[in-house]
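User: Hey, my collaborator sent me this sequence without any context and asked if I could get a structure. I don't really work with proteins. Can you help?
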Amino acid sequence: MRIVALLVPLLVLLLAASSTATAGKLFDKVKCSSCKAVGGLVVGLVRLTGSSSLLRSKAKLFCGLVPVARTVCVGYIDSWAESLTYIVRNSPLSASDMCALYLKSCARRPLEMDVKLELPEPSAAALRRRLENYPPPSTPGLKVLHIADLHLDEQYAEGADNSCPEVLCCRAENGFPSDPSRRAGRWGDYTRCDSPFRLVQSMVHHAAKRHKDQLAYIMWTGDNAPHDSWKTSRQEVLSSCSNITGLLRHYFPGVPVFPVIGNHDSAPINSFPPPEVWRDGFSVAWLYSALADFWKPWLPADAVATLERYGYYSVGVGPGFRVIVLNTNVAYKLNFWVLLTAQRDPYHQLEWLAGELRAASRAGEKCHVIGHISPADPDILPAWSHLYRRIIHSYQTTVTAEFFSHTHVDEVQISKDKNDEAFAVSYIAPSLSPWKDVNPGYKVYTVDGARGADSTWELTDLERWTTDLADANRDPDRYPRLVPAWSKAVNAMLLKDHLFTKYYRNLSGGSRVQADCDGECRQEVICNVVTADRSSSLHCDLARATYRAGVSLA
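Assistant: No problem. I've predicted the 3D structure and written it out in structure-token form, which is a compact way to encode the shape of the chain:
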């Protein structure tokens, strides 16, 4: 029965699509010594017999040990059994290496990649110029829309059970409970539910109505299929991608769109096999080819060709500026094909990236790098993440910003060098899907790209637009109302002392001699935040009224 020690991590990995946090907690329960002790035996058995049916049947015996419905467990095993058998038989890694790749309890030096790149040292003079020329927020700029993690569920059913035992709920197959708290809302649900089509359409429509005429381009960073990952089909993945492509083309005619492939945009989920195994029946060419066909109206021929072959591409957007789109799924630990490629550069992507940045640097171009999973994500292979970060460090005066998604929350990641000096910033977009427990939203960035040859292509401002899903479902016959997240933050700062104090202290960099700020001072500070048009005091007057109302209720 000690085989449990290996099969539990296997099942956990298969079920990890439901949430990285859940996977991490379950991984922590697996002892490294147990994994290593039994791992060699099981790996040897699979390599000897080559039997996927053996792996499938034995694994299913232990579905009761993981906290998900049996149908989900069995579905994951069936979808990955053939691939995992091939991977285990052909992986150059030992059982100990495999355990160390996934278990924190097996802490050891990360596997090194057999990749040699000639990377230049960043120019000190160029770094000084970048800092000296960084544009102030008032600089006129271009607007860029970032949408991500839409997770369109075409089977979403209003009123269906939102608390089913499976990873994804809110479908007719889950039943229609009488308890109002368990009934899926019209516009979506916070629990285990993805985006109904009406939510996706309303969000895209709002973004177009509000921003279309200002947009230079759109970043669409993947994850379009729903979280029914244990039974995801190629047809479902392609249908989601096709429908969202159609929405964007309809609402944003003439606006360039740079799409990215997410880890949910394959079947099985997370499956991105390397080209050398395609001839053995494990190809992802069906996906790359279809997406290249969907997206070719937005991309030049050379980018389409690269996308169709590797899932990544590069586009010169205009004089002096380039967008580089990565396929970071190939380095995602839950893409089990990394057990074949952990010491290589899958698709030669990092070598290609370094070459693109080298050419851009020589041509005087600035670049934005975008992808789905951030290379700083804890579930990216450490060696791949390290080499990626070395490339960005070398070309830190060429890459002015990085944009990713995947986590469903609004985050910022700062890259620092060995001297603790920051050299790059990555912006993580929130999800449009409410799965799990988030309000749907998107981001709009302002980029210094409207000054011709003087443009630095630095990020100068950003807005997060979000809708309160609970409010939307209370008034289901109206379109959800989207507001900039800062609107709520400003009101909160007016009324909550600790939030205002944090903001006010930050104004001076935390100076200890900064004067205290009384109620009148607070109103003045907030008025400066909300007043962009100095010909009108409307927003300042509203802020003052909000403050006075809050004080009178206290």
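In plain terms: The two ends are 62 Å apart (CA to CA). You can pass these tokens on to your collaborator as they are.
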